[in-house]
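It is worth pausing here to work through a concrete case rather than discussing structure prediction in the abstract. The textbook approach is simple: state the sequence, then state the predicted structure, then interpret. We follow exactly that order.
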Amino acid sequence: LESHMSLADAPLSVFKCNIANRCPGGPPGTCGKELDTSVRSCALCRDRWYWNGDECAPCSFFETSSVLFPLIPLMIFPLIICFLYRVSRDDSDRWGTWRNGIASFGFLLLNHYQITTLVNNANLQYSGSIAGVLGFFKFSEDPMSMFKPQCAGFQDFQKTMILRAVGPVIVAALIALTFLCSHVVKRLSGKDVAFEVNRTLNIYFSLIFTFFAAISAMALAMFKCAENPNGIDTLAQD
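Step two, the predicted structure:
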C-alpha cells in the first residue's frame, strides 16, 4: 500500500510514511530509491545520499568531507559576526535610516518564511508553485541545511536533534571567541577594533530572536508524534 511500509523482519507491523515518495508500496522492506530499507517509515537515505525534498540525491566527494560541514560554517560565522557588529553600531538618532529600514524588512521577511515553512510541516497540501517557493526558503528554518550535514554523517534524527540543540551553545562560543580575538588584535595592533560587551551580547540575542521560531519548532519536535496502523506512535520527524 502506497505511503505505508513494514520492515522485512516484522511484515505485519505497518508504519505510515509522511512522504509518499519514500514508501511506494510493495513487499515488506520496500522503500523508494536509495532509501534505507532497515529504517521504519523509510525515513533515511543510504550512506552518501541525502534527502533533497523529493528523493535521495547523491553526495559529492566534497560534501562527504569535513570541509563543507563543519569546517566552512566555523570559518564563515566569525566573519558574519564581525559584519553584524559593524552594521549594528548606529545610535538611536540613526535608527530611522534607510539601511536600518532594509534590515528590518529583511528580518520580517525571514520570519515570514520561517512561519510558512513551519506551516508546511502540518497536514496541508500546497499547490506546486507555492510548495516550490516554500521549499526554496526551507533554509530559513534550518540554516545549517545549506551545508548538507546529512552527507557528513548527521542524517538520523538523534544526531540531527543533538546538533540543533547545541547550536545556540556553539554560536555563543564562536561569538565569545570572536570577542576575545578582537581584544587581542587591539592589543597587538593598537587599533580600536575591540568589541564592546553590550553590543556583542546584542548580536547573540538578536540571532536567537531572529531564529526563535525555528528554535521553538526544534524544541517541540520531541513532542510531535504520528499514529501508525500498527498502533505504535512514532515521532513525526523520525
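Step three, interpretation. The mean pLDDT is 84. The first strand starts at residue 4 and ends at 7.
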